[in-house]
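User: I'm curious whether this sequence folds into something compact or stays loose and floppy. Could you predict its structure so I can see for myself?
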Amino acid sequence: MSCTTVDVKAYFLGELAANEKSSLEGHLHACQNCREELERLNLTRTALLSLEDQDVPQRIAFVSDKVFEPRWWQTMWRSGPAMGFASALMLAAAILVHAYARPVVLRDIPTVDTAQMEQRIQREVSARVDAAVAKAVSQTEARQTEQIARVLDAAEKRIESQRRSDMAVVQQAARLYEQQTARLMVAVNNDQRPGQ
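Assistant: Here's the prediction. I'll summarize afterward.
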């Protein structure tokens, strides 16, 4: 007998014939799944029997009945303006209670020497201004030193380049004079020899 052909629920409810009942009991001894299903059905019956019987209601309530009307606090809770007014009222009451419940204690307020405070403020402002000026001057000097160094470096490079080009021109001119002098000497030597 396969589990698909077995009706465990009919067996549980006592609706099977005697021959079917005996064959199903034999199947239950052999099949673990069917035994578990029968056990679940027994647990369900036990749970249902443990519940109290309740009377059927005589009348069904309608939405318009007073049973469904919200209580006063539910109406207030759902109303934004009412909640705002209630919270403002509670805050005002708390302020009033706080004001009248706690007496104001006047303490001796020390007198302030305004001249001394002004001098102190003047000193602090002067110190800050001096520090800012010193910082600005040092930054400006650093920038100027850097600019001067760059200008001097560029000028030195330019002067060195000019000096090299002048030296090349002078050397070329010296070679030219040397060559002309050598030619002149050769010409003079040639002129003196034939006439001797």
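Summary: Helices lie at 8-13, 18-30, 32-50, 72-78, 80-101, 114-192. The mean pLDDT is 84.
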